Description:
This protein has 358 residues and is an alpha/beta fold.
Amino acid sequence: MNKPRVLMIVFVRNESRYLKEWIDWNVYAGATRFVVYDNNLDNPEEEARTRAVLQPYVEVGLLFYHRWHHMEGRGSFFGLPVHYTGKSDNIKNKKHYAIDHALHRHEGRSYDLVLKIDPDEFVMPVDGGPLKHVWHRLIDYMKRQRSKGVRIDNWFFGTSGHKEPPANTYSVVDTYVRRETSPSNFKGAARGKWIKDCGPSSHWWNYKWSATEITVLTLILTGSVGLLLWWSLAGPGHWAVKLVVWAVWVVLVVVCTTLYHMNQNQGGRVDSQPIVRLHHYYTKSEAEFMKRRKHQASETQTNSDEVVRKRFMKKQARYNVVEDRLGQEMVKEFRKEMGETATAIAARAPRSGDRVPA
């Protein structure tokens, strides 16, 4: 039986200190390929550190690296090019272009599972099983449910009282243990063959229609058209009434098809799953957050440190409510069972035939 193939598409900025733990964690959880887009704009020191961390994974074929600075400011709105540096679920930005690039250049649709994920989001099992190969268990669940994609709850964690990070190298998962009371967001995980494109979102995918869906829609349309034609030509009623009915039918078809397609694009409203969740270590310590924000998106840089700190404290009041030790339990398993580095595991694995970027 072939090993499931899991692709992680990640956009990095000021994350070099945490990347190794995140990559090794996902390899242990079952990830088989990473495509990293580096957006350390105007921060050459951080870019150099990021490259140094990633190089061992590149050498064994586990990871592909792309410098993505040239896409700064590029966006599109309903296909029209615009200059855009913010975040919106209606405007396509440089991050969305990166994800579409990975789908095409690295044959993302050939993978059993594809995630667009951030390096501060760590997968956790909630099905009672181990962390090891939890991504594979999610694939099995999706196949049993015949799901194109699923929603993964995203729980935000706060500082857990840390104003400064622990000295030297430390585990993010082992350090931050307080979170919000309910998930404030989600990420979509998709089976590659069903992905249409990234869409204008970092959270959900645009999905293809299945053959069954197309067949059902075709039968409904042809059947209703046939009935309307018969009624128009042979049925009772004034021609003006028939014309109005045709107009109403056209409007209903357009509206229903659009609403259904929009629902499909977002993974549906029933595609939750009981296998995994994400722990989103959004802030880490207060000092780390304030340091990173100096190289964050332009709309953040325009605010003073005082304004950013006030917003930071407001978020902390929401993110530091519930103590959650699941991550620490998984760290114990991870350290005990990993046994060897992710690069050693990747070096033994057969190559997938993915094309190396120029």
